[in-house]
Amino acid sequence: xxxxxxxxxxxxxxxxxxxxxxxxxxxxxxxxxxxxxxxxxxxxxxxxxxxxxxxxxxxxxxxxxxxxxxxxxxxxxxxxxxxxxxxxxxxxxxxxxxxxxxxxxxxxxxxxxxxxxxxxxxxxxxxxxxxxxxxxxxxxxxxxxxxxxxxxxxxxxxxxxxxxxxxxxxxxxxxxxxxxxxxxxxxxxxxxxxxxxxxxxxxxxxxxxxxxxxxxxxxxxxxxxxxxxxxxxxxxxxxxxxxxxxxxxxxxxxxxxxxxxxxxxxxxxxxxxxxxxxxxxxxxxxxxxxxxxxxxxxxxxxxxxxxxxxxxxxxxxxxxxxx
Length: 323
What we know:
The protein is α/β, with parallel strands linked by helices. The chain is 42% helix and 16% strand. The protein has helices at residues 12-22, 39-44, 55-62, 78-83, 85-106, 142-161, 189-198, 219-231, 250-260, 288-294, 302-322, and strands at residues 2-7, 27-32, 46-48, 67-70, 110-114, 165-170, 173-174, 204-207, 213-214, 217-218, 238-242, 248-249, 270-273.
């Protein structure tokens, strides 16, 4: 039996990863997060609550673990990246320094860095293969750069110390677990759009033309891909796009959200706001490497996943209204 440390395990993707791990008796799970862990997580996992930027706290969190899945980071929507570039660079780099060093000292069997599709924000190859990382331009956003730096850390740890690693790049993760923010753009697109529709915004506001494309990947599929990459021998010292296949425009995503909220299709109307300075125009990954080496394929279609997310958010709003 192995023991997996999931940093950031109380977040949206982290919680999905933990749910996937605890279904398998092969794994014991330790969660480290400064967010409060839900009751089900406290009942089924060890919980660590220290600040992982502190090397001593990171060492305590990793002690006795055979695997580390590193998710702890400052994340959010496109507005978040533009507003807090130094904050996220500083925090994410401090986390790499402490958590990755702790994984090295513990000599874990596998360090999994959960990177981001934002490392490909200047991609010119579509669908974008993992090998394109060697040719694509350096990310313009601080967030994309910070995630690419984490990938460089992993490769450096292996080159100098022989530490086994796996890099996973989720593409446009969404699903139950992420609450929208009051200000548009600070959360990811799907919860942001759901909030707008449920709040009665007419027409629905989006940033940019709406022709930008994204590849929505449900958090349960992302979790399945991350655990498969960590567990499979073929995942060692490799990088993987963890994604669905279907490329959708932002306008198509907004329409799916509109209809999932129960609105009439013929009433759908958008208002296009000026784009952010860094706004990726196309995001469509190749998923063949994960399929061929890991046997992983995303299963949840966007229409199904968005409907599930709308239902979850309605429930959260109803609970908050009666609290």
